[in-house]
Design brief:
The chain is α+β, with helices and mostly antiparallel strands and about 240 residues long. The protein is about 30% helix and about 20% strand. An eight-stranded mixed beta sheet has the order 4-3-2-1-7-8-6-5, with helices on one face. It is elongated and about 65 Å long.
């Protein structure tokens, strides 16, 4: 069974194909908990081997049962392999699986500072993304002239990971200072927020989001085009 590992490690794609067609153990696990495909997804130089193993039917969501407990997508996100991340997502890799540290591949990429990986995964799973404006001035300025103190922010709405995939996804609104940032400035758990419906009789429709419980919070405004949203949140 170790022959397939050896051929993958040596980048011998022809022998890998041959062994794969001979059913030489695509999902065989070594003493470190790796399948041949997981091994390939931990090395930049083995990208061709990844494609070969996928063609042979390797499990794109294989889970590594060791101290890390991660999928191939976790491994690729952890070491910044952008092409591998794109390949895995295009072949059905689940970006919402949690590792043993209760992190999704997206959270792993954020922690490692790989903004390119963060943007790649977010663009694959987001329900919304775009530039908005965040207002942060004193309350009287916010009320009468909110445009005076504002800054552009990149905003995405993404589902969160869950230990129970049968339950409905929970959504987060994630705010970044720029597209170059891997770490978000603020994460707003939308399932904990109170949403007031916009008033249709207003020329510039608005929506307010706030916490369901009374806790210490800070205030800001976010806008998109001519639609303004007042947002009250506490830091997560």
């Amino acid at each position: 069974m170790g022959q397939l590992f050896e051929q993958v490690s040596h980048k011998d794609n022809e022998d890998t194909k041959s062994l794969g067609h001979e059913d030489a153990g695509l999902e065989w696990v070594d003493k470190e908990g790796r399948t041949p495909f997981i091994l390939a997804c931990t090395k930049l130089k083995l990208f061709d081997g990844e494609k070969t193993l996928l063609q042979l039917g390797s499990d794109v969501n294989a889970f590594r049962f060791d101290c890390n407990g991660e999928t191939p997508l976790h491994h690729a996100a952890n070491i910044g392999l952008e092409n591998t991340v794109k390949l895995l997502l295009s072949h059905g890799a689940n970006p919402l699986v949690l590792n043993d540290d209760f992190q999704t591949p997206l959270e792993v990429a954020r922690a490692q500072g790989y903004s390119n990986i963060v943007r790649t995964i977010e663009s694959h799973i987001c329900l919304f993304s775009g530039w908005m404006r965040e207002f942060y001035g004193p309350s009287y300025v916010e009320l009468f002239a909110p445009q005076l103190l504002s800054r552009r922010v990149w905003v995405v709405i993404v589902p969160t990971g869950s230990q129970n995939p049968t339950k409905p996804f929970k959504l987060e609104l994630v705010v970044y200072a720029s597209l170059q940032d891997a770490q978000p400035r603020t994460v707003i758990p939308l399932w904990k927020a109170k949403l007031e419906e916009p008033k249709s009789d207003q020329s510039d429709a608005s929506v307010m989001i706030g916490p369901t419980r009374k806790r210490q919070r800070r205030r800001g405004y976010i806008s998109h085009a001519r639609r303004w949203a007042q947002v009250d949140w506490r830091k997560c």
